[in-house]
Design a protein that fits this description.
The chain is 9% helix and 45% strand. The chain is mainly beta. It has two domains: 1-32, no CATH class; 35-146, Sandwich (Immunoglobulin-like), CATH 2.60.40.10. The longest helix has 9 residues, at 5-13.
Length: 148
C-alpha cells in the first residue's frame, strides 16, 4: 500500500512515523531519552605530534546535551597521562538543583611528555565510578636535547 502525502504530513505533525502498510507509530520524545540529554565528551591535544620535551595542552569538552545533566554535575576529574602517571581533582559544589545547576563544559591542562607514544585518558567520575571517558593519542619524537 502506498502512502499518500496527506497521511505522511499528518504523521509528521502528530509526532508519529508513517509506516509502509499505512499504519503509524509514535515517535519517541527526545526529552524521554536520557542519551539525548547526555553531552558528548571530546578530548583534544595540541600538538598531537611534537619533539621532546613537549608541553602539550589537553582540552576535554562536553558538547551538546543538557546544561543541567546531573551525572556530569560537579564531577571528579581524572587524567591518565599514558606515561605511568595520573592526576585527579575534585571541586566543592553547591547541591544539585534540576534546571538550575549547570555543568562545567571545558577542562584544560598542560602536561610535559618525553619521547614516546602516549594514550591520554580523561575521566569524569561520581563517587569513584566513571560516568564519562575520552582519550587521545600523542606522539613525541626525539628532540635536540635527546642527543639525536
Amino acid at each position: 500500500m502506498k502512502l499518500c502525502a496527506t497521511t505522511l504530513a499528518a504523521a509528521l505533525l502528530a509526532g508519529t512515523t508513517a509506516l509502509a502498510d499505512g499504519s503509524q507509530k509514535a515517535d519517541k520524545d527526545p526529552k524521554d531519552n536520557p542519551d539525548a540529554r547526555r553531552p558528548k565528551l571530546i578530548l583534544k591535544a595540541q600538538p598531537v605530534i611534537s619533539l621532546s620535551p613537549s608541553r602539550v595542552v589537553l582540552t576535554a569538552e562536553l558538547v551538546g546535551g543538557a546544561n543541567d545533566f546531573e551525572e556530569y554535575y560537579c564531577p571528579t576529574v581524572a587524567w591518565e597521562w599514558g606515561d605511568g602517571t595520573q592526576s585527579e581533582a575534585t571541586t566543592d559544589c553547591a547541591p544539585y538543583e534540576p534546571g538550575k545547576s549547570e555543568i562545567k563544559r571545558r577542562f584544560t591542562v598542560e602536561h610535559v611528555f618525553r619521547t614516546g607514544n602516549y594514550r591520554v585518558n580523561f575521566f569524569l567520575k561520581r563517587r569513584d565510578k566513571s560516568v564519562g571517558m575520552a582519550s587521545v593519542t600523542i606522539q613525541v619524537r626525539p628532540g635536540l636535547r635527546d642527543g639525536q
